[in-house]
Write a structure and sequence with these properties.
The longest helix has 17 residues, at 9-25. With 190 residues, the protein is of the alpha+beta class. The chain has helices at residues 9-25, 52-66, 98-112, 168-177; strands at residues 36-44, 71-74, 89-96, 133-137, 157-163.
Length: 190
């Protein structure tokens, strides 16, 4: 009996989108077409310095959202005004690549973003100038994997989509093609 290999929906969509992006962006080679390299999820936990359970629950929630074990992030230097010492646990992070990355992006676009209250589209001005996109999620409970009743406190998380695009315009075309709902183009060039 032959086994079927699984391919994420957005990965298949990207394979169809690639030639279209090449002609749209005027690129000579298909290898120049931008692609998503990784997605990084980061959750800061300021309560971790006084409450160890806060960090444990943040790691558990981020692991549930990502489908991959979250890493503990430690402070790089001491800041006296924040009562922070070098080496104290201050957050959690996950880096997604490959199939998990496409699966997470698919869940973000089709399930989580529509659950945000008063959602008007993503800000097209949140590119970093090198083709990478960052967005902040105010509540982790927009992901259906999180059990609403077991959440001790509402935390936000940062999602950074790293692409191989050289310019923000190429990255915007890629992310639009993959279905990210951007607001009307009111980009502010700084």
């Amino acid at each position: 009996m032959a086994t079927q290999t699984y391919s994420p929906r957005l990965k298949d969509l990207y394979a169809e989108l690639r030639p279209q992006l090449q002609s749209e962006l005027g690129l000579t080679s298909v290898m120049q077409v931008p692609r998503i390299e990784k997605i990084t999820l980061n959750m800061g936990v300021g309560d971790a310095k006084t409450d160890a359970k806060a960090l444990d629950s943040a790691i558990e929630e981020l692991t549930t959202i990502a489908g991959q074990r979250a890493q503990v992030r430690k402070a790089r230097k001491s800041i006296a005004s924040f009562k922070l010492r070098e080496g104290m646990a201050v957050g959690a992070k996950v880096t997604l690549r490959g199939a998990r990355m496409y699966e997470f992006l698919d869940r973000l676009v089709s399930v989580a973003l529509p659950r945000i209250r008063d959602f008007r589209g993503l800000n097209p001005g949140s590119f970093d100038g090198r083709g990478n996109y960052s967005l902040g999620v105010r509540e982790q409970i927009i992901f259906p994997e999180i059990d609403y009743d077991s959440v001790a406190s509402i935390r936000g998380l940062d999602v950074t989509i790293t692409t191989s695009a050289k310019t923000d315009e190429h990255a915007l075309a890629l992310l639009r093609g993959l279905g990210l709902p951007f607001a009307a183009d009111e980009r502010r060039d700084s």
